[in-house]
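Example 3.2
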Amino acid sequence: MDIELQTPRRLRSADCALTAIAVVAVVAGAKFAGTFLVPVVVGILASYSLKPLVAGLERVGVHRAIGGAIVLAILTGLVIGGVFLLRDDAKAALAELPHAARKLRIAAHESARRPEGPVAHVRAAAAELNRAAAEASGSGPAVAAQAPAPPAPTALQKWFAEQSSKLLAIVADLGVAAMLAYFLLASGDTFRRKLAQLAGPTLARRRITIEILDEIDAQVQRYLLTMVVINTVVAITTWAILAAFGVDHAALWGVIAGVLHVVPYAGSALTIVATGFAAFLQFENAGRALMVALAIGTGATLIGTGLSSWLLGRTFRMNAVAVFVALLFFGWLWGGWGLLVGVPLLATVKTAADRIAPLRAVGALISS
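Structure, written as C-alpha cells:
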C-alpha cells in the first residue's frame, strides 16, 4: 500500500523537475537567441496590429500582398514625415549642445573652486583616505601618479560611435521585423490554418487553438490602440507643460516623451530627467528646472498610474504586480525590446493559460 502511494508522488516530483528544467532551458535559449528572436517577435506582433487595415483594403478589392505593402509604406511615410517636420527643432537643439556643454563646464569649475562646495568635500575625503592608508602601511603619503588624461573629444567620439552602432542595430531589427510582418500579412490565414491542423485531430483541440489565436489577435490590436491613445496624451501633456514654462523646443520634447513612453516606467523616468536637465541649461536656475521636472513627473504619474492602468486593466484584465514582474523579466531577457513587447507577450501567455486546463492556475495568478 505504501509503495502504491509513493509511486504517484515520485511521478509528480519527476514531472515538476522536468518542467523546471524545461523552463530554464527555454529561458536560456531565449536569452542566447535574442538577436534572432527579437525581430521575429516584433514582426509577428506588428502583423497582428496591422491586420485590420489590410483586411479593410481586401474588402474593397485590394489583394493582401498589395494591401500589406501599402500599409507598411504609409506607416513608414508617416514616421519619415514626422521626422521631416521636426527637423528644424532637432537641428536647433543639436546646435545648442556646445553651448550647453560650456555651461556645464563653467558650473563644474565654479563648484570645484568653492571651498564649501561638494567637489571640495569629495577631494578632502579622498585625501584623508589616502593619508589613512599610508599611515596604516607605514609609508609616507601616497603620491598620485600623474597619468595623462585622455582627451575629451576622443571619449565623446567613442560614445557617439557606440550609440550609432546601437541605432543601426535597431534600424536593422526594424527592417527584418517589417519584412516578416509583410510576409505574414500577405499570407493571410495560411499559418492560422496550419496551426489548427497541428493542434490535433479532434475538433475540440482545433476549436481551442482558433479561439486562442483570435483572442491573441484582439489583445494585440487593443494594446496597440491603447498605447496610441496613452502616448498621444503623454505627448500633448508634455508639450503643454513645457510650453507653459517657456522651455524651448516644446513640440520636439513632446514627441520624444510620447515615443519614450512606449517603454513602461523607464520611458517616463528618462523624460523627467531629460526635460529637467534641458530646463536647467536654458534658465540656469535649479529651482525652475526642478519645477519643470516635478510638473512633468506629476503628469507622467497621473497618466501612467491613472489612465494607463485603467485602460490596460480593462484591455488585458491583468494585475499590476504580474505586469511589473513580466517587464522586469523581459527587460532582463531582451533589454529595451523586452520592455516594449513584455506586456503583449504576457497577455498572450494569459490567453493561452485561460483555455488550457493544466495552465489555468497560471492564468488565475496573472489575472486581476
